[in-house]
Amino acid sequence: MKMKGFAMLGIGKTGWIEKDVPACGPLDAIVKPVAVSPCTSDIHTVWEGAIGERKDMILGHEAVGEIVEVGSLVKDLKVGDKVIVPAITPDWGALESQAGYSMHSGGMLAGWKFSNFKDGVFAEYFHVNEADANLARLPEGVEAADAVMLSDMVPTGFHGVELADVQFGDTVCVIGIGPVGLMSVAGAALRGAGRLFAVGSRPNCIDVAKAYGATDIVNYREGDIVEQIMDKTNGKGVDKVIVAGGDAENTFVQAITMLKPGGRIGNVNYLGSGDYVRIPRAEWGCGMGHKVIAGGLMPGGRLRMEKLASLLETGRLDTSKLLTHRFNGFEHLEEALLLMKDKPKDLIKPVVII
């Protein structure tokens, strides 16, 4: 049986292809998408060649879907269940998972399977490994479009908050307020940040950042962000920085410089190009300033999805604020992906309802 999918044909090339419907292993599930969203990671992958050459690989790793087949050993899920599909689907028996780093099961970043070394979710059907451990039921009353943000945007943004170890009353700066950064703002506010700086320039992102709890906006178009932060904090700087945007050349210089000794940087920005990250020697305390840089891929799995879904159920988090462009129909996948590539000023995140 054949299916259609929207794929990376090679670096810089995309298009519709036809492939066999994937086979279902005994622990696995086959899912058809209900709602999907393209990601900036897809742009890095295709147009920057960030993970190297890929040929005829179906794109996409953000989806809510409906199960159409389950393996013989799947216990908790059944055909017809609506499920949230995390972008990271680890192998839970791997030694890396047992060590607490499931996102690196099988090797660094190897918990990220969809649109990395396995066909993604922009297809009529897609495969999910270890279904009981990697899929969470879509709660009643939660819209599929809103829940798609739980696949990647929410857990990635929140992981930046975890990596930075935001504590009650911390002064926090979030660099980059695209959809991931906005979720870092929301997560930092939920974790008890005091003063919360959000670095960005687009008016709609600024408005949403304020709605999610940002107390101050720092516009990089209006001057050096470090100077603005130091001025606003009377020269003290911030306790924590979350990097959710920017580049390897300049952003870490800024983050290190604005950070207090003993502070932490949580990086969840996908550095899709360049060979090195610049760290300023003196501002880092000549390597002895106790300024910690922690970079990590979001955790995946069912438990994470269920916990984050509870925030939508209880009204503590409203992801609909991220959804600026909505499409109906599988045929709009390419249009939605190109929006993420071109980034018009009114875009935060597109979603395609299928």
Layout of strands and helices, then pairs:
Blueprint: E1 2-10, E2 13-20, E3 29-36, H1 40-47, E4 57-58, E5 63-70, E6 82-85, H2 95-98, E7 126-128, H3 131-134, E8 136-137, H4 144-148, H5 153-164, E9 172-175, H6 179-190, E10 196-199, H7 203-212, E11 216-218, H8 225-232, E12 238-243, H9 251-258, E13 259-267, E14 292-295, H10 302-313, E15 323-328, H11 333-342, E16 349-353
Parallel strand pairs: 9-10, 9-12, 10-11, 12-13, 13-14, 15-16
Antiparallel strand pairs: 1-2, 1-4, 3-5, 3-7, 3-16, 5-6, 6-8
Helix pairs in contact: 5-6, 6-7, 8-9
Description:
- The protein is of the alpha/beta class.
- Helices cover 26% and strands 24% of the residues.
- It is built from eleven helices and 16 strands.
- The strands form three sheets. Strands 3, 5, 6, 7, 8, 15 and 16 form a seven-stranded mixed sheet that branches.
- Helix 9 links the parallel strand 12 and strand 13.
- The longest helix is centred in the middle third of the chain and has 12 residues.
- The model has no long low-confidence stretch (mean pLDDT 96).
